[in-house]
Amino acid sequence: MKALFNVMGAAAVLATVLASPIASAHATLKSSDPQAGTTLAAAPKQVALTFNEKIEEAFSSITLTDAAGNAATTGKAKVDSANPAIVRVDIPALQSGTYTVKWAVAGHDGHRRTGNFVFTVK
Questions:
Q1: Which of 9, 34, 54, 122 has the largest count of CB atoms under 10 Å?
Q2: Contact 64, 73 (CB under 8 A)
Q3: In which family does this protein belong, per the annotation (predicted)?
Q4: Is the bond preceding 84 in cis, omega lying within 30 degrees of 0?
């Protein structure tokens, strides 16, 4: 019986070790500019998102909406040629208010990840 528990324990550890690279294979947001939840004295000219891996531009987007849900971005998100883990979108002059950034990206594994955050302009 003890041998069976040892085998089951070893199998659980092995499964965890083997699954770890798979779980971390997706693009994960590391940082943003502007930062999530921040209040800015001046409106930013762009939104830049930094991920833990290279992003596929063709399958990625960033949208910015105001508090009423109106789109504030008109351009397409572009991957930084110097660092393909960074995706940027230029934004027009923003009025005071709260804005929501919604993003969707695909990393090298092709899996699409999404997220959102807000920031405020005084």
A1: 34
A2: yes
A3: Belongs to the CopC family.
A4: no
Instruction: Tell me the domain boundaries of the chain.
Output: 27-121
Q: If you average pLDDT over residues 48-71, what whole number do you get?
A: 96
Give the global pTM. 0.79
DSSP bridge partners of 79: 87
Question: pLDDT tens digits for 4-46?
Answer: 444 444 444 444 444 444 444 689 999 999 999 999 999 999 9
> Confidence band (pLDDT; 50, 70, 90) for 82?
very high
CA angle 16, 21, 26 (to 5 degrees): 125
- Write out the CATH class of domain 27-121: mainly beta
Contact 63, 114 (CB under 8 A): no
